[in-house]
Design goal:
19% helix; Immunoglobulin-like; 156 residues; three-stranded antiparallel β-sheet; 35% strand
Length: 156
């Protein structure tokens, strides 16, 4: 006799709930990196890089803005940004927008043995330089791209 998938999954959920109620299975604490408050509160490029630990970042051609990152963004409310790092051992990528009130727009942890590629959408207040920062080992690398915004990303 075959057990239908829904009954099988339902039985598993009931079993897991029963084991949890009996104290035989416990949820472990969630593990997350602490929020870098100083990096998100920094207002200048120098202060942001210092808060990230990358004050001595080196420009690198191994970090690239890739499609769909535009040169001209029609609407600053949703600007697609994609970054690829070919720096060996890249474990973190950050995206900074120079003229935004908060420069650090995104921060991504890159797991071991995965491609160092991230894609997101950011809000841009005006035409600005966008900086991709990558950390590999204890070194920081960056690439910069100017993105022209034709319509303000301020909701107006």
């Amino acid at each position: 006799m075959r057990l239908p998938r829904r009954r099988f999954l339902g039985s598993g959920a009931v079993l897991l709930a029963g084991l949890g109620a009996a104290g035989l299975v416990r949820a472990g604490p969630a593990v997350a990196r602490p929020w870098n408050k100083a990096a998100f509160e920094a207002r200048t490029l120098k202060d942001t890089l210092a808060a990230l630990g990358g004050e001595n970042a080196t420009e690198s051609k191994d970090i690239e803005f890739v499609d769909p990152t535009p040169g001209v963004a029609e609407n600053g409310d949703v600007v697609p940004i994609a970054v690829s790092s070919k720096v060996p051992g890249t474990r973190w990528i950050g995206i900074l927008v120079e003229k935004n009130p908060v420069m650090l727009s995104a921060s991504f942890n890159i797991p071991e043995r995965t491609e160092a590629f991230v894609s997101t959408r950011v809000k841009m207040v005006e035409t600005s330089g966008v900086i991709a920062v990558a950390k590999a080992g204890e070194k920081y690398f960056y690439a910069r791209k100017e993105i022209q915004v034709t319509q303000c990303g301020c909701g107006g």
